[in-house]
From TrEMBL:
It is a multi-pass membrane protein. PROSITE patterns: MFS (PS50850). This is Transport protein. It holds the Pfam family MFS_1. PANTHER family: BYPASS OF STOP CODON PROTEIN 6. The chain crosses the membrane at residues 21-40, 52-75, 82-100, 106-129, 141-161, 167-191, 212-233, 253-273, 280-299, 305-330, 342-363, 369-390. It comes from the Bacteria. It is found in: Cell membrane. The keyword Transmembrane helix applies. InterPro entries: MFS, MFS_dom, MFS_trans_sf, MFS_Transporter. Belongs to the major facilitator superfamily. The keyword Transmembrane helix applies. Its main location: membrane. It comes from Limosilactobacillus fermentum (strain NBRC 3956 / LMG 18251) (Lactobacillus fermentum).
Amino acid sequence: MESNLTVKAPTIHRARLAWSLYINYFIHGFGLIILAQNMTSLGAAWNSPLKIVSFVISGVGIGRLLSYLITGFLADLFSRKAFVLLGMSAYLAFAIGIPFSHNIYVAYFFAILAGIANSALDAGTYTTFVELNGGNGAATILIKAFMSAGEFVLPLLIAQLTANGLWFGWSFMTMAALVVINFVLILPLSFPLPNQSPAQEGSGEKKVKPNWVTTIALVLYGYTSMAVMIWFTQWISLFAADSLHFSDGQAHFLLSLYSLGSISGVMLIFALLKRNVKETHLLISMNVIAVLALLGVLVGTSTVMVQVASFVFGISAAGGIMQVGLTLFMRFFPHHRGMVTGVYYFFGSIASFTVPLITGVLSTTSMRAAMTGDLVVGLIGSALMLVVLISERGRHHG
């Protein structure tokens, strides 16, 4: 029997598989912003105002909310590869369908499909990286770097199309071509067996079972870790212009510094995880640093201080710490990694839906009130990670 099991074990081309999965997230970087970047052209194509185009974009968030729990649960029942291919197929349909849609209802369907693509890719990819690396989640952090690269390249491509008077749809066709090429590359590859408990944890720590307190704290962290980033990117420029009296250029530069910090944070966190720094220690320290950086933005007495604080906030809050939280969550539930991913990012999707509503209400008081709300969310996130750390230590000593 043992020899039969050995024969059935798939041969994994680790480097090829990892690169193909990362390329998917470069493409996903396109998918995150391609509708917003083409709003004017899409409005003209659909003969609709920008308000209607914005409504269509909201379909992406609806697609995520509808599908995260389902794809996460099913990814544990079926293969990871099936959900990666499902996500790629959905993105292909989206990329081809949107520029040829002449009806906003059809376009809304394709936008929902993009949200489903996002959730299917997450369910199949994050789990695969953890299983590919024996429980170590360092590789998942680089996903964010490839997403950022896609978000960087797409606006340059659209700017070139516009400058040369070319059809806006070529940006979607480029996305579709990348999906097809990567589909061909990934199709023959084998994936690791799903939901295998790692023989040895990357950090050599004793395995412990989570209690309900730890589980709830990590689920809620799925919300706060996403909310703190969305909150900042939505309001930092407006806050800087209104409350700090920055010029328009200075206010927008803060967001650029945040993005640079995010890329730097990815490299830093990846290096720390490779050195087997405990996820709980990393989560506590990065969340506390993010809170201090937000405090620096709010009470900044000089332009340089606010700029440094924005950069540090990018490193600590947007450098992949959300992915670290997911890796820790999956470590507690090694036989339900797909379901855990779905639940975690479902709460992240709730954040993307509710933060604009909450901040909109706060902004009626003042821009400072809106921005201070982000500090409160950061403090809640830090408290949740403190709960996880205390609970984990209690079980080790219990």
